[in-house]
Amino acid sequence: MTKSVELIVIGTELVRGIIQDQHCQLVSRELTHLGYSMKECIAIPDDGSIEKVLSKSAAESDVVIVTGGLGPTSDDMTRYAIAQAASVSLEKNSDCYKRLYERIGERIHGANEKQTLIPSGFTCLLNPNGTAEGFYGRTDNCLIIALPGPPREMRPMFYDYVLPLLAKEIGHDGVERDEYTTYIIAEAKLEELTEKVDSSLDWGTRFQDYKISLYVQGGDKEKRDSAIKSLRSLVGPELVQDGDVSALTTLTGYLKENKLSLSICEGFTGGLVSSLITSDPEYSRYFKGGILDFHESDPSIQADKTRVLFSSDVALSISGNTEGVSFGISTKNRSESVVINFSAISREYVRKRSVAAAFILVHVFLQGKSLVDTVSHWEYI
């Protein structure tokens, strides 16, 4: 017998149309592919109505997924409603408390401590991108799964924990899915391109600030590999990487492995590149320093001056504006520059894509590749 699923999305802004729901299509697509029957997607406000809605859904469906309402404020009622539906108490989970304390320290005391309360007998779902952990457990007849509402938190947890859990629940040995990381390409364009490459496969995306995770399933491995090869030929091979990676860690791993040092001169990106690098606890192993310079000058010369100033092995300069971003990279023996024209949806959009491009370009430059030749293959950016 086919198992049924209901999705409850909590958020007053969703109900009022202030923000758009991003969960229903994702959950419906992935779970239908697994063989579940998607009964309903329900959006409700933060007004306590979750108790009545959840009680009805849990009585009528095999699986209920709830997103939102796990925060520390008084209108975040999801954990209380789930405990009531399961007829259990809420208990402070020691592991959840420890993880949250490590993230926010003494700020845990007070309202934030509420986020460590989990229905008795339920299992926590780690949230690497936020403070509210998810959890899952059962009533008499229903599996209830609670996830945070923000897409950047919900989507990784759904793919990493919920989908494997539900695959096992319905009797699949596992979901045969390949994961890739894409850069710079807009999410809507990426979805359009994947359909163009092979519409018979199931594609999924997860948007993040500096990258988009891309999932592909269906067909056999050869068919999926062929589709990714076609996608790379369309957008440029550097913009689609295997696995869950980041342009930053790819570059910094290369610098550490080869014992190379980096310095940076930023104009247009305003310190974003340096800020991301120094978020790495080991940045002092390879990062010599960075400066802000908003004067327009030859990017190769600016990079070379920066390299000399900090006595680094390689230096990067970024300047320009939304109409064209200039990148200059210099080592002791070689310098090169290139200008990239990004689709100027907004200034912030271009800045973030410039950051991702910068990490990629430094990496390919250190491998001896030409910047101009590299970006000539980049399409749909």
Can you describe what's shown?
With 381 residues, this protein is of the alpha/beta class. The chain has three domains: 166 residues, MoaB/Mog-like domain (Molybdenum Cofactor Biosythetic Enzyme, Chain A, 3-Layer(aba) Sandwich); 66 residues, ACT domain (Alpha-Beta Plaits); 130 residues, Maf protein (Alpha-Beta Complex). It is globular and about 70 Å long. Helix 2 runs parallel beside helix 6. 38% of the residues lie in helices and 24% in strands. The longest helix is centred in the C-terminal third of the chain and has 20 residues. Strand 6 and strand 7 form a beta hairpin. Strands 2-1-3-8-7-6 form a six-stranded mixed sheet, sandwiched between helices. Strands 14-13-15-16-17 form a five-stranded mixed sheet, with helices on both faces. Strands 10-11-9-12 form a four-stranded antiparallel sheet, sandwiched between helices.
The major pleated sheet works out as: 6 strands, mixed
Shape: globular
Kindly report the name of the CATH homologous superfamily of the largest domain.
Answer: MoaB/Mog-like domain
Strand-and-helix sequence, N→C?
EHHEHEHEHEEEEHEHEEHEHEHEHEEEHH
Question: Which stretches of 5+ consecutive residues score pLDDT under 50?
Answer: none
* The CATH class of the largest domain: Alpha Beta
Please state how the strands of the largest beta sheet are arranged side by side: 2-1-3-8-7-6
Which fold does the CATH topology of the largest domain refer to? Molybdenum Cofactor Biosythetic Enzyme, Chain A
